[in-house]
Amino acid sequence: MDTTCINRITITRPDDWHLHLRDGAAMKDVVAHSAERFGRALVMPNLKPPVVSVGQAWSYRERILAALPDDPRFDPYMALYLTDTTPVDEIRRAAMGPHILSFKLYPAGATTNSDAGVTNINKMHDRFEAMERWEVPLCVHGEVTDPSVDIFDRELVFIERVLVPLRKEHPALKIVLEHVTTKDGVNFVIDEERHRHPTAATITAHNLLLNRNAIFQGGVRPHHYCLPVLKREAHRQALLWAATHGGPRFFLGTDSAPHAKSAKEAACGCAGCFTAHAGIELYAEAFAQVNALDKLEAFASFHGADFYGLSRNTGTMTLVRKPWLVPPSHEYGESEVVVPLRAGEYISWSLESRMHP
């Protein structure tokens, strides 16, 4: 289907299956961006301290709901932070609790606020068995932290060292390889589907639109630095194929990860791209670039809900091909700002409500 001449599309309201909202005043400044665009989101638990229990997740969810604008259409789902000491019974409580959707596996030290993450995957099999038994998905930050492994190879090595053995030990465990960045990750998910294993992957907009050259265009670009780090163009092309033609095991997860400008533009800057301000518009741009706008609704609105066993949203949203200028920054907490992806540049697709408030 030729979609190059389409200038307006209406899709079922999408979901964001990987979102960082932070907490407190900073969270209040960013959550409205996601609420404007998405029906639901899976909110990551890597706060300080991390969200490790059902009770903490419910409290965090209440804070998110309290920060939403009037008449919200946004329903946050929660992930719990898996640690070396997560009680097996907490997995049962998570399975029984409303709006608790998954556990998140951070290899210790892999990314922002991951110091409390799992240090030895081989000691976690009783937890994985409980997740299989109670049908609780495991969301995975798929990188090894071995300093001898090249940063651009850490996803591949994680698949080889961790995911392949994990799948052999736990064939029924639902696994989501979050923010997949390589053709190796794409091929792993496709092979898993071929073997009827319940494995999926989320894909970010910034990985669909950028390759690793973007980090160094005109100098070091700290707001393009994220983890997993951006990869070669061949990997970006593989992700575009997966998002547009890879089938129901690939779905939208922005991994929007706000950090204060001062923390990004620092001697040791934080990893993360803030994309919630254009959480669906950036995907529309990526899909339009490869003549696949007709595939956007399934990727953004259907595949994730189906994988997690939730009903699809019933509302709709409309996007139009009309460029808009991204502000240089947004408020972020009491005295900071966050710099959005494409700050000071144009995005070619808009929410119709942006044109007609």
Structure explained in plain terms:
With 357 residues, the protein is an alpha/beta fold. The protein has a single domain (14-314), classed as Alpha-Beta Barrel (TIM Barrel), CATH 3.20.20.140. Helix content is 34%, strand content 16%. The chain has helices at residues 24-37, 54-67, 88-96, 125-134, 154-169, 183-194, 205-209, 233-245, 261-264, 281-289, 296-308, 352-355; strands at 8-12, 15-19, 40-43, 75-81, 100-105, 138-140, 175-177, 199-203, 250-252, 316-320, 324-325, 330-332, 336-338, 346-347, 350-351. The chain has an eight-stranded parallel beta sheet with strand order 2-3-4-5-6-7-8-9, sandwiched between helices. The protein has a three-stranded antiparallel beta sheet with strand order 1-10-15. A two-stranded antiparallel ribbon has the order 11-14. Helix 1 (24-37) links the parallel strand 2 and strand 3 (40-43). The model has no long low-confidence stretch (mean pLDDT 95).
- Amino-to-carboxy terminus distance: 32 Å
Which architecture does the CATH hierarchy give at level 2?
Alpha-Beta Barrel
What's the helical proportion of residues?
Answer: 25-40%
The strand order across the widest sheet is 2-3-4-5-6-7-8-9
- Average of the residue pLDDT scores: 95
Portion in beta strands: 15-25%
Spans of 5+ residues with little confidence (pLDDT < 50)?
A: none
SS class: alpha/beta
* Biggest sheet descriptor: 8 strands, parallel
CATH class equals Alpha Beta
Task: State the helix count.
Answer: 12
Classify the oligomer. single chain
| Named CATH topology | TIM Barrel
Name the overall outline: globular
Radius of gyration using CA atoms only: 19 Å
Number of strands: 15
Q: N-to-C SSE series?
A: EEHEHEHEHEHEHEHHEHHHEEEEEEH
User: In CATH, what is the homologous superfamily?
Assistant: Metal-dependent hydrolases
